[in-house]
Amino acid sequence: MKSLKATLTTFSKIQVIGQRICETCGSSVPIVKDHKGEEISDCLACENKALEREMTDYKVQMDNQRDEQITAQFERYSLIPDDLQTATFENYIPDHDSKKDALKKCQWFAENFDNLTGFHSLLLKGGYGLGKSHLSHSITKYLKEQGKKVIFIDTPSLLRMIRQSFNDHSFSESEIYRLCAEADLLVLDDIGAEYVKQENGKESWASEVLFQIITSRMDKPKVFTTNLSSKELSNKYGVHGGRIVSRMMKGTRLVEMEGKDYRTQAW
Q1: Which of 138, 94, 139 is CA-nearest to residue 121?
Q2: Helices (H) and strands (E) in the chain, counts
Q3: Are 191 and 153 in contact (CB under 8 A)?
Q4: Confidence class of residue 77 from pLDDT cuts 50, 70 and 90?
Q5: Is residue 267 pLDDT above 50, yes or no?
Q6: Could you tell me if 191 and 90 are in contact, meaning their C-beta atoms sit under 8 angstroms apart?
Q7: If residue 49 lies in a helix (H) or strand (E), which one and from where to where?
Q8: Among 247, 72, 58, which residue's Cα sits nearest to residue 176?
Q9: Which of 257, 256, 237 is nearest to 247 (CA)?
């Protein structure tokens, strides 16, 4: 290691012999001659910007990797059945006019996702086995193929995942909320199917979670599916019920579906 005296001697031999204008950023850059007689004229402003870009790119890369890990958790918790994983618009077979209409509207929504005007979300409503999950997952698949960041999860599983985050340190509650808020599209399947415990007439924890998530996406695209009416949803969520339904429906088109339960048609 050099002594302090040797270091000071080296610096004392560095001479500023001129100035130049950086052709990249326009800064004034000194031209120096070092103790070996070599000329040095590096632009520190450009080097600092390059370092900032490198650090920013690294942070973005790490954040993307983290988001991918948590998105995988959504898929793991949602436990999507095999038949739904292969669901597409092409293999949805409607046997009722309302199902044909729903297919047409969902496909249009996906294909025109970047140019939606007047509304930005869908609510698929109807009884069991009509294909609401099939169509909403078809939207998910289509948009993912277009490079969109889409989260699909059934509501009971979302609540279970948030509860688990209290004990599982591989992901946090705040990260779940953030991803739900920042995704290009959030699909909440089977909303209202989760168990909600009424606590002395006050809103339950589940109601608070849904209120917070839906509020975070007030003007962002969402797809909901449910078997319940707006009145049933309002009653289910207690004090928060009316506000949850109101926020769900802001900028949302209702798509009502009727017909036979396709799961039981073979019986």
Answers
A1: 139
A2: 10, 8
A3: no
A4: low
A5: no
A6: no
A7: helix 44-78
A8: 72
A9: 237
CA gap 87, 100 in Å, rounded: 16
Q: How far apart are CA 186 and CA 155, in angstroms?
A: 11
User: Are 153 and 186 spatial neighbours (Cβ–Cβ below 8 Å)?
Assistant: no
Across the beta sheet with 15-21, the strand order is 15-21, 28-33, 39-40
**How is residue 89 written in tokens?**
């618009």
Question: For 163-183, what is each residue's pLDDT tens digit?
Answer: 888 887 777 888 889 889 988
CB atoms within 10 A of CB 34: 13
* Size of the chain in residues: 267
Structure tokens at 42: 């590096």
Each residue's pLDDT tens digit, 97-144:
999 999 999 999 999 999 999 999 999 999 988 999 999 999 999 998
Do the strands 121-126 and 185-189 form a parallel or antiparallel pair, or are they unpaired?
A: unpaired
Angstrom distances, CA of residue 249 to CA of 38, 121, 246: 70, 8, 5
Determine contact, residues 180/151, Cβ cutoff 8 Å: yes
Give the type of residue at 11.
F
Tokens 């609401």 identify what position?
132
Residue 254's closest CA among 230, 238, 218, 232?
Answer: 230
What the block records as the tokens of 77 is 């918790």
- Strands (DSSP E) found in the chain: 15-21, 28-33, 39-40, 121-126, 150-154, 185-189, 222-226, 252-257
pLDDT at residue 266, as a whole number: 45
